[in-house]
Amino acid sequence: MTENVYVFDTDDDLGKHLAAQIADVMQEAEQAGAGFILGCPGGRTPRSTYANLACEIKERNLNLDRVVIAMMDDYVLADGDSWQHVPADVHYSCRRFAHVEIQAVLNEASESSSISDDRVWFPNPAAPAEYDQKLTAAGGIDFFLLASGAGDGHVAFNPPGSARDSRTRVVKLAEQTRIDNLKTFPEYGSLDDVPTHGVTVGIETIASLSKRAAMIAQGEGKRLAVARLSEATGYDPEWPATVYREIANAGLYVDRAAASSFTP
User: Fold this and answer.
1) 43 vs 19: CA distance, rounded Å
2) Are 74 and 86 in contact (CB under 8 A)?
């Protein structure tokens, strides 16, 4: 099943294409006087999209005052019988990533508007179910950027075996997910430094609350992921990133390096 698979020569070409799509939807929302929620992962995969979205914001003079960044996950630490975010200043913190590599990058592109700190959202590890309620009350996610784990197909922190009806929750990270994150955050000294748990949006959260979505895969390391994602006909719990097949307005966006193992 290869429809809605888009291949680009480079990750920058991919980022430019996706950024233009996102900017179109942002512009429509602005013209309608509505808010816009961008669902975001951290890590290497979406960086070219965020950089190119900043260019689109500057060129189109888009207003950011009603834009929300909704992050999909974060590492957590035990806090008695509950959980808390890892410190926001550690190199692998998704809160750090959101503020430094998304919010600041997009805000710098606008001369007259900005995304305020209270419009950068994260799931609360002490009360994760509240995130689905908050996103639902806001009308859902207008455009969700997604990425697949290279080795096990995790999406956000949803491990293989995640139920289709799972929602935002704290999960134990699969070992392969932790191994994949050694590459995402090279500052880790070893696997022992990678936290064992994370708070994450669920499969149902992504499927039911995304109005549009793009699954991104870049680089030779994502060849297996592209093969699994392009062949999927629906959600496969053995490769959770296949959830994108459950979203009506979604596609798989890959660069040549990642797509070399299949022909769209």
Assistant:
1) 17
2) yes
SS3 177: helix
Rounded CA-CA distance 205/39 in Å is 11
Domains of the chain listed by start with CATH number? 5-259 (3.40.50.1360)
Q: Are strands 213-217 and 143-147 parallel, antiparallel or unpaired?
A: parallel
CB neighbour class for 226 (10 Å; exposed up to 12, middle 13-18, buried from 19): buried
Give Cβ neighbours of residue 44 (< 8 Å, ≥ 6 apart).
183, 184, 218
29-79 pLDDT per residue, tens: 999 999 999 999 998 899 999 999 999 999 999 999 999 999 999 999 999
Residue type, 216: I
Structure tokens at 202: 């669920």
Report the alpha-carbon distance of residue 141 to residue 116 in Å, rounded: 18
Q: How many residues does the chain have?
A: 264
Report CA-CA distances (Å) from 248 to 55, 243, 244: 28, 11, 9
C-beta separation of 201 from 72 below 8 A: yes
In this predicted model, what pLDDT tens digit does every residue of 69-119 receive, in sequence order? 999 999 999 999 999 999 999 999 999 999 999 999 999 999 999 999 999
CA distance 170 to 129: 10
